[in-house]
Amino acid sequence: MKTAVFLSLLALLATVAGPLQAVPPGLTLDFLNDDAGDVTFSGTTHADADLRCANCHLSIFDVSRSARISRADHRSDQFCFGCHDGETAFAARGNCDSCHQDDW
Question: What are the backbone angles phi and psi of residue 67, rounded to the nearest 5°?
């Protein structure tokens, strides 16, 4: 009986874990920014790096579509800049057009 329950839970976890990617490959999220140019978040790029929602959400970002990142945040190790530091992922600081569609 315990084995059947364990296998059922394992199958359920495998079914649910796949769709829990940050943004599914092939999809993007566009963050509109009047001051500094829009930012497009690529699900494909992040999924290719084996990232899932939990890698960023709850620890770095709230689970919210209304994330606001200030210019001061760009000088911190918070939000995107926790990984986009030039070591874990490309450096965001000083590379504005790598994220923003328009120059600052």
Answer: -60, 130
- Say what the alpha-carbon torsion angle 38, 41, 45, 46 is, to the nearest 10 degrees: 150
User: Which range marks the domain in which residue 90 is found?
Assistant: 22-98
Cα R_g (the chain), whole angstroms: 17
Residue 41 lies in a domain: yes
User: Mind listing the pLDDT tens digit for each residue in 19-65?
Assistant: 444 577 778 888 888 778 888 888 888 889 998 878 888 777 766 65
Indicate the pTM of the whole model: 0.64
4 CB-side CA count, 13 A? 1
Which residues lie below 8 Å from residue 41, measured CB to CB, with a gap of 6+? 23, 28, 29, 30, 31
Q: Cite the beta strand spans of 1-104 per DSSP E.
A: 28-31, 39-42
